[in-house]
Amino acid sequence: MNIAIVGTGYVGLVSGTCFAEMGINVTCVDIDKDKIECLKNGEIPIYEPGLEEMLLKNVSAGRLKFTTDLKNVLDDVDVVFSAVGTPPDEDGSADLKYVLAVAKTFGQNINKYTIMVTKSTVPVGTAAKVRETINKELAARGVSVDFDVASNPEFLKEGAAIKDFMMPDRVVVGTDSERAKKVMARLYKPFMLSGDRMIFTDIPSAEMIKYAANSMLATRISFMNDIANLCELVGADVNMVRKGIGADTRIGRKFLYAGCGYGGSCFPKDVKALIKTAEKAGYEMQVLKAVEAVNERQKGILFEKLSRHYSGDLAGKTIALWGLSFKPETDDMREAPSLVIIDRLLKAGCIVKVYDPVAMTECKRRIGDVVTYCADMYDAAVEADAVLMLTEWNQFRVPSLSVLKKTMNSLVIIDGRNIYDAEYLAENGFTYYKIG
């Protein structure tokens, strides 16, 4: 089977590489000529464990190709996946201009039955707009060509995307066509050999599933952060509370960890978009509005703890940040708590030293040289008045306290992910703050 994937961002590149790994011929398309040339030369624009090796192998095998010209590949493919960006508009709704641009090119150039599949996260009703755009272009050409539209939302976790795609817990396909259903089932069959985990739905339901899933996970995070903040006020330990409620099988243990707020490319954008979708439908998502508000407040909680420790006198203090990306195993800093904390520290007159295993280049691209970029975690802690742990990379989990005691000005650690042992740190002379 031959397919095309438009958009070589995170979703498109991972999806295309994994399809090629299963023996499917894949052409990845992007309008960014420089990016396509880099990919042809084996240069990967994102950090994702295992992706580079798999991509290079499939390029070498001839199953994975890259181009800037969608129209020239349409006659040779059975399915076109649209994995272009849907950035938030000024009002928080998803901007569909790139999705509809792909649909327009598709309608202007198809000459045989092809399926247009939306893989980008898009609001309910987008598939109808895609279909309308394609039909408009076919009418302008004065031709009649069979095609189908489908929705196939992605559920990839950054840092574990290869595993998520190759061994999915579910594959959701929304379609109103039996013909398209058979093609999509055949396309995903190699990923289903250990059990059929395909879920076929109507198109609006498929479009809603991705938003609902991410919004539920974001809700659990904000709920636990709210509980953690209350625990601090009443003397409870949020880690014990988490274990107690997570043992209830109706609740489960996942996504019950308190922290300094969620970020990334999905949760913040999708929560905003679902709130806006509801508003357009005349409904208010009260729970999600609270989820968003709690998260924005939580991103500043480590700064607040630091400020309280120093009684508001932070001018001239040297603060070390361990971790910049919104989560481990990625260089993604979109909506990362680190950006909020850096901004507040700088406004308070602090000297900010940072270290992250992979996100330093991305941080410099975003904020420039307003912070000091360090060679490693201990370099960042030299003469620091406090260390703020923001991202739970493995290398941060067991720091050498003896090294820190020799180099830090003040032995203060503020843990944004609750990974350290408070008793052990106290025994070694550290002042330790956690979430909840």
Radius of gyration: 24 Å
Helix content: 40-55%
What's the number of helices? Answer: 17
The total beta strand count reads 14
* CATH topology heading of the largest domain: Rossmann fold
Low-confidence stretches: none
**First-last Cα distance:** 52 Å
How does the SSE layout of this entry go?
Elements lengths: L1 E5 L3 H12 L3 E5 L3 H8 L10 H10 L3 E4 L11 E4 L14 H13 L4 E5 L7 H16 L5 E5 L9 H6 L4 E4 L3 H11 L9 E4 L1 H32 L3 H9 L20 H14 L5 H13 L2 H9 L8 E5 L14 H11 L3 E5 L4 H8 L4 E2 L3 H5 L4 E4 L11 H7 L4 E4 L6 H6 L3 E3 L3
Parallel strand pairs: 1-2, 1-4, 2-3, 4-5, 5-6, 7-8, 9-10, 9-12, 10-11, 12-13, 13-14
Helix pairs in contact: 1-3, 4-5, 8-10, 8-11, 10-11
Features of the shown structure:
Rossmann fold; 6-stranded parallel beta sheet; elongated; 17 helices; alpha/beta; 3 domains; 436 residues
Entry summary:
With 436 residues, the chain is α/β, with parallel strands linked by helices. 44% of the residues lie in helices and 14% in strands. It folds into 3 domains: 200 residues, 3-Layer(aba) Sandwich (Rossmann fold); 87 residues, NAD(P)-binding Rossmann-like Domain (Rossmann fold, 3-Layer(aba) Sandwich), CATH 3.40.50.720; 135 residues, Rossmann fold.
Describe the structure.
With 436 residues, the chain is α/β, with parallel strands linked by helices. It has three domains: 2-201, 3-Layer(aba) Sandwich (Rossmann fold), CATH 3.40.50; 211-297, Rossmann fold (3-Layer(aba) Sandwich), CATH 3.40.50.720; 299-433, Rossmann fold. The chain is built from 17 helices and 14 strands. It has helices spanning 10-21, 33-40, 51-60, 97-109, 126-141, 161-166, 178-188, 203-234, 238-246, 267-280, 286-298, 301-309, 337-347, 360-367, 377-381, 401-407, 422-427; strands at 2-6, 25-29, 64-67, 79-82, 114-118, 147-151, 171-174, 198-201, 318-322, 351-355, 372-373, 386-389, 412-415, 431-433. It has a six-stranded parallel beta sheet with strand order 3-2-1-4-5-6, sandwiched between helices. Helix 4 (97-109) runs parallel beside helix 5 (126-141) and helix 10 (267-280) packs antiparallel against helix 11 (286-298). The radius of gyration is 24 Å and the shape is elongated. The mean pLDDT is 95.
